[in-house]
Amino acid sequence: MVYKIGQKVRGKVIGIQPYGVFVAIDDETQGLIHISELKHGYIKSISDVINKGDMVDVIIMDIDEYSGKISLSLRSLHKPKFHPFSNKRNIARYGKKTGIGFKSIEDKLPKWVEQALNEIDAQKNSRRNG
Question: What percent of the chain has pLDDT over 70?
């Protein structure tokens, strides 16, 4: 059978290695699900996610045109439980929510506009006098 990138196929897990899982798509074709493509998030042990002999639905991510190796993904069939930036307030990098938002810009904008207009007037006057 001819396979295409993006195609959803069903296969049987025939081997597990520390870096990923080998899946037989048909009698003559197998592909690899890299550990990063098994599921969203951290995977401590592959056997926590999948076992030898399991039947799995996967997406063909890539087919190497020279070697014919097929890269598969189980993760792409599942939506992540959360968006990576959905919980910003609990991540130290983002700090605490202050609720200020654009208020500080709103307060400073009139002063900035006034300064810019004064600089423009100063430049016009220096051109007239110079």
Answer: 82
Tokens of 59: 């997406």
Cα dihedral value 78, 79, 84, 90, nearest 10: -100
pTM: 0.61
In a domain, 85, yes or no: no
Q: Report the candidate in 30, 44, 22 with the shortest Cα–Cα distance to residue 1.
A: 30
Tokens 């598969």 belong to residue: 72
Same domain, 20 and 72: yes
Radius of gyration over every alpha carbon of the chain, rounded to an integer in angstroms: 28
Same domain, 62 and 109: no
